[in-house]
């Protein structure tokens, strides 16, 4: 035997590729190298008598007839390649890349089958394909666009959806600086962004206003983060369209500002009416007393006691006017106040001053039950006071009706769990047949000329303070209006309304 032949034999015996030698005519196994025996788990002697169906997968595409035809194809054409799934002695299937080659030997033609196990390769390929396809689907169909930036915030790559959000094509956006498409908040060069992205795992939320070519404005919100992969770090921006949300927030802010204006406007109007109405009586009385004093001074004899009485009465009326003006000034001074820690009971007492003025001229008695302790809440005193005055005036308008027998208004404050409440009661007609939720929505007004706008404003003010208003049947008759507000340093109300008796 030549040395070269012995070297070839050693290579065949030590290769990791499995080799099977089949007789060309019968397709019987004549020989197998050690690698093939290891893959099958059979010895050479065990392999030789086996047929294709003994050592192949039981799946239909690997049945015996197909295997024989494959080997026969090599006999006819010289070679044939196929993925074939063999079965080991333990019954485990393994997929192989197999090549059958016709070899003419001295003793007759044989078919040499070279095969290697590719099960792991195929599994890995399928996994990679799935990941690649999934990423492509995400890049194409997800509601969030993906933008890959370089260290100078120029666009390296961008998903189709992200490009669509900017109103361009991916090709048009390649190499464009992100902030050239619209101002970012915070700025990408700001210290905050630099510091956050300086941390390898850091991220920062940004919002961008984009003016598109058609001059429409879009608001985009995204998360810019550093992603480490293959030993490098990339800036990845996940961005989505939040135009609807931003427009809603702007509209809501406008409505809030308008509510503030309307509330303060009504407060100023109420104060002006109080001044015009309530100051009229003491000023008129003072004028009458002064006229009397002038008449007494022009008389032949001056009654000192009469003059002193007249002066005292003028002083009393003017002091009353001063008290009214002082209270109004104190109330109006808070109209431009902001949210602060306030004592609800103090606000109720101040509001009842004006309520009693209105009630007195209508012949309505006002009873209050206000504890000496304080109920502190976060809010605007003037707005809460406006709610109290509005609800009390509505109740007074009901009480003064001829059909209301008991001309009394009752106001009380108290605490329910972590919330303070104000309850305003009358014994008027009540709300028979009227759902309580329609009152707060402004759909119902007991007045013939009422629009319910005061109730709408009151509801919005209370809701903005984290509370709620509910309209209930009073016992034995009439209406009980309950305002519940969260106490300071406590969570907003939840079920406190239903716990009130």
Folded structure, characterized:
It is a single chain. The protein has helices at residues 3-14, 34-40, 44-47, 52-55, 64-77, 119-141, 160-165, 170-173, 191-198, 243-278, 280-297, 304-332, 344-362, 381-399, 436-440, 453-464, 496-499, and strands spanning 18-23, 29-32, 79-87, 93-105, 108-117, 145-149, 155-158, 184-185, 203-211, 217-229, 232-241, 340-343, 365-369, 376-379, 408-416, 419-425, 468-473, 479-486. The chain is an alpha+beta fold and 501 residues long. The protein folds into four domains: 3-117, PAS domain (Beta-Lactamase), CATH 3.30.450.20; 126-241, PAS domain (Beta-Lactamase, 2-Layer Sandwich), CATH 3.30.450.20; 243-336; 337-501, 2-Layer Sandwich (Heat Shock Protein 90). The longest helix is centred in the middle third of the chain and has 36 residues, at 243-278.
> What is the overall shape?
rod-shaped
Summarize the biggest pleated sheet: 6 strands, antiparallel
Question: How much strand?
Answer: 25-35%
Q: Any idea how many domains? A: 4
**Spans of 5+ residues with little confidence (pLDDT < 50)?**
434-452, 494-498
User: In terms of structural class, how would the helical and strand content be classed?
Assistant: alpha+beta
Helix coverage percent of residues?
40-55%
Which CATH C-level class of the largest domain is it?
Alpha Beta
Number of strands: 18
Q: Report the CATH topology name of the largest domain.
A: Heat Shock Protein 90
The end-to-end distance, rounded to whole angstroms, is 111 Å
From the alpha-carbon coordinates, what is the Rg to the nearest angstrom?
A: 46 Å
Roughly what is the average pLDDT, rounded to an integer? 79
Discrete helix count: 17
> Strands of the biggest beta sheet: in what spatial order?
7-6-11-10-9-8
The CATH H-level homologous superfamily of the largest domain: Histidine kinase-like ATPase, C-terminal domain
The CATH architecture of the largest domain comes to: 2-Layer Sandwich
